[in-house]
Structure formats: C-alpha cells, structure tokens
User: Which sequence fits this backbone?
C-alpha cells in the first residue's frame, strides 16, 4: 500500500512529534519508533527490522541508514537513537540484551513484530498509514524523487508517485490562491 492516501492533519503530526521529542515519560524505544514514522515515513515493519548497524556515530554526527544513503539525525532524535542502541531491551527479558536488533522482540534473537510495533504506535495516538502519508507528502514536496527513494529506502516508482501527488496538490493550492479575489 504505497499509494498516496489522504494526509493526516499536519498540526496534529507536529504536536505528536513535539511530544515524542520532549516527553521523557514515554519509553525511549517508542519515542524513537514514532519519530522514525513521523519524520522519515518508515512503516512499522521497516522500523522493527532495524539493527544497531543502521545507526552510526562518526565525527560528532549520528546517522541512520534507512536506504542507500545515511541520513543525519538532528538532536534530540540522534540522542534517542544512541540511547536505544545502548539500552535496547527485549519485551520478554527485563535486562539489557546483546541482540543486534534495535527493537528486540519477545523471542530471543528476533525483532519486535511489525504488528506489535504498530500497536505500540497506535497506543501513542499515531495512526501509521495516515501518519506515513503525511510524512511522505511533506518529504516529497522538498526532495527530488531519486533522493527520496535512496534516503528512505522506498522504490523509485513510489517516490515518483508521491512527488506527483505533492506537486498536484501544491499546484491546485497555488491555482486556488491565485484565483481568489482580493479586496
């Protein structure tokens, strides 16, 4: 289901992102997973399959590799990613694990399931499909399709569809604004 869906309320997404960035009463792993969906349009299934090797720290920068090209993480997202690498926990085991999964699951050596990841996000008030649509729409308005595909790990045809959808909506908006009668 990588076709443009109705976008979610931008302000609601921004409010959720602010909450995840600053509310330390929410578990680090949930904050990071929610931000990966809100900011980088990652499906719960893609988030659940991330390993510690997807996060790299070099020269004072923290990067995440979602596609072919690593993306610099801004603060405090970078700090959340490093915290998750250092203290990832399995749901079945309360102690730190040596799992290479960034989001360990209930079974040793396995990541959290995509379903469980989606449920955790829904409990935070995040609706994955609509939230991803909003994130992709926003990203597609400012990035060329090739860059979008390479950095987010999505197929180029998907990136092109999103870019066309974003351009069409912006074009319609610009035409509507231009046709308004000004007093």
Assistant:
């Amino acid at each position: 289901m990588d076709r443009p869906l109705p976008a979610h309320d931008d302000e609601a997404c921004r409010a959720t992102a602010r909450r995840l960035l600053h509310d330390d009463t929410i578990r680090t792993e949930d904050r990071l997973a929610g931000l990966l969906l809100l900011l980088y349009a990652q499906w719960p299934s893609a988030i659940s399959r991330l390993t510690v090797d997807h996060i790299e720290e070099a020269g004072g920068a923290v990067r995440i590799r979602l596609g072919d090209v690593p993306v610099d993480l801004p603060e405090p997202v970078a700090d959340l990613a490093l915290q998750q690498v250092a203290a990832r926990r399995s749901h079945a085991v309360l102690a730190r694990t040596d799992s290479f999964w960034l989001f360990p699951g209930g079974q040793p050596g396995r990541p959290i399931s995509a379903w469980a990841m989606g449920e955790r996000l829904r409990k935070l008030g995040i609706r994955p499909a609509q939230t991803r649509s909003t994130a992709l729409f926003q990203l597609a308005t400012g990035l060329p399709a090739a860059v979008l595909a390479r950095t987010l790990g999505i197929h180029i045809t998907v990136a092109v569809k999103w870019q066309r959808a974003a351009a069409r909506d912006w074009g319609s908006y610009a035409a509507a604004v231009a046709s308004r009668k000004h007093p």
Observations:
- The domain at 10-179 is CATH 1.10.443 (hpI Integrase; Chain A).
- The first strand starts at residue 55 and ends at 58.
